[in-house]
Amino acid sequence: MTTSKHLQNENQTNTTELLDNILNSSTEYGIIATDLNDKIVFWNAGAEIIYGYTKDEMVDKQTPQILHVTNPHSNDILLHNDTNYNSRITDYEMKAIRKDGTILPVSVTVTPRFASPGIICGFLIIVKDITNLKVEEKYRDILIEVAHLVNSPISINEMCNGIISAISTILEIPVVFICLLDKRNNNFYVEHQIGLNSEYKKHHCSYTYDDKFVYGNVFDCFLTYSQFTINYGKLTGHAICEFIQDVDLPESDSSIIHIPLLADIALMGILHIVIPSSRKNLLLTETQVLSIIANEISAGIQRKRLEEEIKQYAYDLERLVQERTDQLRVKDAQLVQSGKLATLGEMATGIAHEINQPLGGISLIVQGLQRAKNFGKLNDDILDEKLKSVIEQIDRINKIITHLRTFARQPKEAHQEISVSVPLLDVFKLIGQQLKNKNITIETFISEEIPTVLADHNKLEQVFLNILSNARDALDDFEKKVRRYREASNPPEWVKSWQKKIVISSYEKDKYVYVEIEDTGGGIKKEHINKIFEPFFTTKEVGKGTGLGLSISYGIIKEFGGTISVESEEMLGSRFTIRLPSHDTSPNPVLGRYEH
Prior knowledge:
Structural class: alpha+beta
CATH architecture of the largest domain: 2-Layer Sandwich
CATH superfamily of the largest domain: Histidine kinase-like ATPase, C-terminal domain
CATH class of the largest domain: Alpha Beta
Number of helices: 15
Number of domains: 3
Mean pLDDT: 78
Distance between the termini: 148 Å
């Protein structure tokens, strides 16, 4: 029985010694035990590593010793003065002050030690260095921020400046700068920076393997340039030193890390990080994170350069299209003007008739005055009456000439609110007499309550003139055919009642203004109906048409947002329909009406 108890005690002793050895040798966790008298009774190897104090310096020593930067409790890590800790474990996140004055982030867990149930004999404090955890959190934050900036709709400068600012702030790095490669001069220049002075633009690196030592200590830069790998070196003597601002960064105890910015298999630049040498190894152990940051920067620069190139291409294309459009507009205006002058040329004979009629009237009046004088019957009343008639005829000539000059003038490129009735009726100032001379009956059904349209008076008049001139010519040509029918022995019934007629109508429907011009000519052949609006297409004899009239008319109406269409049947005539969007809903009275 005694032997059994002895073995049991020996086993317990061995177990206790084993546990003590494990706790003492643990380096991942700092384990500290205190008694109720604020005295440290246990201090393991892990605590020595974290705080820098040896076991001999701490065991059997009274606390408080200020081991942490901040602590809500008066006795630092000793919490036994709080009676509420009888049965709970408390966790803290603190900053440990090491013996050499450096500071480490740590997590601290405090739990009471019990000598027997319900009786506290001290506290057990477990401390863990969470530096790597904090670094990982910072890396995670920086990667999120970099990804956000890269995918934001901002410029390359805004993106890169935001990234180096985030690296400097989150990773607490005083100097960060990006050098980009100038392919034309084959050198690197600083484009984005934090921590450099205002002269940084003067810095550039242009070196090969042979002259890598010529311009400052840039051998580590050269390795990154030539091998596309992360490299580092002492800051002392590096060419960038003369451009670093006055920051609390001892040159002799600092390092510079170079991370390549790769575009596919080419180097576009280098990300440089200047840090205290004590932090160098910690950053270099996370080269994967540094590479991810560099890859994000490279991808962002590439994408944004491509976006800028696309924007520039789109701008150049838009500018080119605008230039071509302006050129075409000028050509189109010239074509319209040419068509107008060609129309006037074709109408020269008719215009001469328009002017000859009042001139003939003036001639007759003058002859009458001469006869009255010769017979001694000329008095003041007759003279006044005849002179008044002469003035009326001269006014008529002036109106025709003035309208001709206005019509022939190059119009201004401006749309105005007008009533279609005005240019429609003005056409008859030019060809009204021609239509009379050719015995063409004109019937008008022009609505007095149609809204205005946004258009150009001169151009609309040209459209109506082209269509009416075509109708006049079609009626003349068809009249010859009808005459042959009438001379035949047994002509068709429609030939007997046929007459040269043009019917003009205007009305409003569904917020559009319509103008219809219908003639009783011979119509348009089916094989020609789809070609009549094509430039230079004409069925007239050589010298009687340019083939531009309807093509120009189509372009003019389209310019005003409208449409022009034709319905035609051989032997029955044609109807042209012009549709223009109305400008308002208020009715506009017709200013005049043409009467044959």
